Amino acid sequence: MNLNLKHNTTLSAEDLCIGYGRGSREIRVVEGLTFSLQSSELVGIVGVNGIGKSTLLRTLGGVQPSLSGNLSVNGEALKEINQRKLAELLSVVLTEPTASGNLTALELVSLGRHPHTNWIGSLTAQDRKVVLEAVEWMQIEKLVQKKCFELSDGQLQRVFIARALAQDTRIILLDEPTTHLDLYHKVQILKLLQRIAHEHGKTILFTTHEIELAIQLCDKLLVLDNEQNAFGTPSELIARHSFEKLFPEDTLVFDPRTASFKVNK
Ligand SMILES: Nc1ncnc2c1ncn2[C@@H]1O[C@H](COP(=O)(O)OP(=O)(O)OP(=O)(O)O)[C@@H](O)[C@H]1O
């Protein structure tokens, strides 16, 4: 079956191998990944440090090439899509933001409109409306006139997410969007991403170490472990014992009844 024929499949990977280098210097980080994402889904990628979450996100976003396998966006092979068109389909927020210190938060969010603006890059009334909506969604109204270098890591993270929302793409990829946030703001952002996915028909995929929150809030999860690399709804994955082997059980034990990890004392 060609998964891409499903009208609401936005992003799909088939027998995907991700990694670095070429030829004898090739480093295969994860192999044999097959999954497809639909619109209106919030999907988390979890797994231990160094397993390949960021590598996968960058590969799906076209930031680095895959080693083999097929990747498609809206039914079209990713490698056939030019950068400008890709920016209309998909936005990516990475962990190491590019230099943006001297811009105000509002200017940075406005850059999200870049793929949609004319050749001079001027914003229309509609562009400004979308930018202000993104600012409201991320509740950064009080920050918009501040320079990015004046913002805390957590505030800056919200500004970068707002930029991705302003880009207004069907697919949004976020690398560890909750890293610098306190527990309240982590939950707040994830609930907001869930609402945006559900109410605006977007596919939102993010990497995270917040496995318990992801189990509670995501529609689906990809559990990278370099064995099963299981993909499914949180309850399917709990039933398949996909979380049990993530960490050594002499340290952390997953309790399927509460969907949480307990320290093995
Ligand atoms: N530019 C690179 N060249 C070669 N190998 C790399 C490169 N970047 C990352 N790697 C390797 O790829 C593997 C996966 O790294 P990646 O950053 O994707 O993991 P991660 O799951 O996101 O980790 P973390 O949870 O620590 O952020 C690691 O072994 C890492 O050392």
Automatic annotation (TrEMBL):
InterPro entries (alphabetical): AAA+_ATPase, ABC_transporter-like_ATP-bd, Metal_Ion_Import_ABC, P-loop_NTPase
Residues that span the membrane, as ranges: none
Gene3D superfamilies documented for this protein: P-loop containing nucleotide triphosphate hydrolases (3.40.50.300)
Classification via Pfam families: ABC_tran (PF00005)
ABC transporter domain boundaries: 11-250
Matching SUPFAM superfamilies: P-loop containing nucleoside triphosphate hydrolases
Gene Ontology terms for molecular function: ATP binding; ATP hydrolysis activity
Name the UniProt record assigns to this protein: ATP-binding cassette domain-containing protein
Organism: Poritiphilus flavus
